[in-house]
Design a protein that fits this description.
- This protein is α+β, with helices and mostly antiparallel strands.
- Helix 3 (104-114) runs antiparallel to helix 4 and helix 4 (120-129) crosses helix 6.
- Strands 1-3-2-4-5 form a five-stranded mixed sheet, sandwiched between helices.
- The protein has nine helices and five strands.
- The protein has two domains: 1-45; 52-214, Glutaredoxin (3-Layer(aba) Sandwich).
């Protein structure tokens, strides 16, 4: 009996170790695949249509694949803005879309339409602020997004015209394709000066940015 228990324990331990090893190998493989894609196309991460904050010649460029309905994106946004404020003129933030939620494409389409009025980031911040109301997982109310726009100073007549511009759908689709090629499966996903953030977290992001600033 003791021998059987010992064999079971050894088998379970072997399975745990084997699973951990496979998980590490899978993560390492995906990391290598992502870096290979980036190396093959230098301008893969930043497109001409990408919204951005900060100078183009900034020492550090953060590319964030985000979803306006994503709770973690909402949480990280002010954190990134604070880092940019602490290092004014040294950091550029570039936004790309990875849309995984039910109403995120609708929200992204509105956001893109506000760019014709130079109101993109004001709208994004307000959408994040109100996200618990319009983007609740239990009771989403995406129609509220329309109500927020006049409060931000959006010309609704112009927006209703601009939102039909085919370039909006084209740009969003391009982001989705790029995200799929990179193997992005969660948001936010960050790249710092072209390199993916290997460990997700506030401190990990700040440390990666600071390392680039100190070079």
């Amino acid at each position: 009996m003791k021998k059987d228990k010992l064999l079971v324990s050894v088998s379970v331990a072997a399975l745990v170790i084997g699973f951990s090893l496979l998980a590490w190998m899978y993560k390492d493989k995906k990391q290598n695949e992502m870096e290979k894609v980036l190396n093959e196309k230098e301008t893969f991460l930043i497109k001409n249509h990408s919204p951005s904050l900060g100078p183009q010649n900034a020492k550090v460029t953060i590319v964030e694949f985000m979803d306006p309905e994503c709770e973690s994106c909402r949480a990280f946004y002010p954190f990134v803005k604070d880092i940019m404020k602490e290092n004014e003129g040294k950091i550029r933030l570039v936004i790309r879309y990875a849309l995984f939620h039910g109403n995120s494409k609708f929200a992204a389409t509105i956001l893109e339409a506000t760019r014709f009025q130079n109101k993109y980031f004001e709208t994004l911040e307000y959408f994040f602020e109100q996200q618990p109301n319009w983007g609740s997982h239990h009771n989403p109310r995406p129609e509220l997004l329309w109500d927020y726009l006049p409060k931000i100073g959006i010309d609704m007549m112009k927006l209703n015209k601009d939102i039909e511009n085919p370039v909006i759908a084209k740009n969003i689709a391009a982001d989705i394709v790029d995200g799929q090629l990179l193997g992005i499966r969660q948001t936010p996903t960050f790249f710092i000066n072209g390199q993916p953030l290997k460990e997700f977290g506030y401190q990990q992001l700040k440390d990666a940015i600071n390392r680039e600033l100190q070079k």
